[in-house]
Design brief:
Helices cover about 60% and strands about 10% of the residues. The protein is α/β, with parallel strands linked by helices and about 300 residues long.
């Protein structure tokens, strides 16, 4: 028994030494294999992260699109969302191109909402069952939010007329502040989003219109200028607008930016005379939608 024990000890030591040597050998080999394995793992993880990010972004875009579609449907059902045909997005218009017998015309009001004048104009429009388009200035809307809400509540269209109504040149960042800030306030105040923009003073080359078009706004100019900002007499205002009226025309008036009592006084007679000439009053989106329908009708007839 004693001899067997003495033989067993060297065998155990030998086994231990063999295992130890194997461990050292494996230790020298493992760093090389570990680096290769880690590199492969990192590539796999990176690839999986990229795929996951792409899927996440795609899902976010899908979610945003679904939310926007849902919001638009709800807004349309409530009558607080109006858009224009895609062919008019990102372009400048002065009027709609309609047939001579399509006597539609749009009244537009700039620089409000203004105390007293906007409310009086809204009263006149309501009495005559007319919907108009109001291009509001952001900082003015901020001061008189209830008037902005009333414009939308009564079925009129609201458009973006910048935050400060300045005329100087704007780089892209400054133009974004002027337009985006106003758009945000319009939405927060009235619950509606607008696709219509009118540059202050009708200036098309100072950076504002370019930015608006890059954001898919329709830049709305005019075909009939009342020049009411020069404070002409009410009869002069009426005759000037009636003389310039054309089917598809856009009339420029002001409900803010200064004393507008002559504009208020001239409006009932202006409406009456235009109606006697066969004109019907519509909003800017309605005017452009009518042109689009007319164009499709003509195209369909020509293809028969």
């Amino acid at each position: 028994m004693e001899n067997k024990k003495s033989l067993a000890l060297p065998q155990g030591i030998l086994i231990a030494l063999t295992a130890l040597c194997g461990s050292f050998a494996l230790g020298f080999m493992l760093p090389i294999n570990r680096d290769a394995s880690n590199a492969t793992s990192r590539q796999q993880v990176k690839s999986e992260n990229i795929k996951a990010t792409s899927v996440s972004l795609s899902r976010i875009k899908d979610f945003q699109g679904a939310m926007l579609a849902t919001w638009e449907r709800e807004a349309i059902s409530k009558g607080v969302f109006h858009t224009v045909p895609k062919s008019f997005r990102g372009v400048t218009i002065k009027e709609a191109k309609l047939a001579a017998n399509d006597k539609l015309i749009a009244l537009t009001f700039d620089d409000g909402p203004w105390p007293s004048y906007t409310a009086q104009i809204l009263d006149i429009l309501k009495k005559n069952n007319i919907k108009a388009t109001f291009f509001v200035v952001g900082q003015v809307l901020q001061n008189y939010p209830d008037l902005g809400k009333r414009i939308v509540t009564e079925g009129h269209i609201i458009g973006n007329h910048t935050w400060n109504h300045w005329y100087h040149f704007f780089n892209k960042q400054a133009a974004a502040v002027e337009i985006d800030r106003t758009a945000d306030l319009i939405y927060k105040t009235t619950g509606t989003k607008t696709t219509l923009f009118r540059p202050p003073g009708g200036m098309l080359h100072n950076g504002l219109a370019a930015y608006a078009k890059s954001k898919d706004y329709t830049v709305v100019m005019w075909s009939a200028d009342s020049i009411d900002y020069a404070l002409p007499s009410p009869p002069t205002l009426v005759s000037r607008v009636v003389r310039q009226a054309t089917p598809g025309g856009i009339v420029l008036l002001h409900d803010g930016g200064g004393p507008r009592k002559n504009t208020v006084a001239a409006l009932p007679a202006m409406i009456s005379k235009l109606r006697k000439k066969g004109y019907r009053f519509v909003t800017i989106p309605e005017l452009l939608e009518h042109q689009e329908k007319q164009k499709k009708t003509v195209t369909a007839q020509n293809t028969k």
